[in-house]
Amino acid sequence: MDPTQFDREKLAAVIGKYQDKKWALIPLLQDVQEVFGFIPPESIEPIADALQMFPSEVQGVVTFYSGFSLKPKGRQVLKVCRGTACHVKGSRTILRMIKKDLGLEEGETSEDYQFTLETVACLGACFLAPTMMVNRDYYGKLNPTKVGAVLGEYRKEDKEA
Ligand code: FES
Q1: pTM: predicted TM-score of the whole model, two decimal places
Q2: Are residues 89 and 150 in the same domain?
Q3: Ligand 1 near 44 CB (within 6 A)
Q4: Within this chain, do residues 150 and 83 fall inside the same structural domain, yes or no?
């Protein structure tokens, strides 16, 4: 499915659970992001209406929390750690290799929406340095061979899906 295609019915189903519950803005936004993979800009107004808020209030919350994204992301979101522990263990080389392999810079998403590349300050798994996450899975003690194998595996899975 093209993630840029906005499905109003899907949104209405999510919003329906939270109608008039102003306190529920964050859980509602989390659900919307879970369903669409991001917060479609077209959803801001219907969400505000349902919770009796101003669209600017909803927009403010979405832009304040870095966990929310207004842009579609890839089916696999890579978070490469660039914290100190990982840096000492060679995360720069790992990141360079991933950028070259995917043809992406930090913050970019591939045209086919398979991969999004991000970097983070610490993944909380420093003992596994250098580390990265793909969606919710951790990969540690990375080296170029391991990274190549992980990316290859995701490419294969994506083709088979
Ligand atoms: S510095 Fe990389 S996981 Fe903590």
Answers
A1: 0.77
A2: yes
A3: no
A4: yes
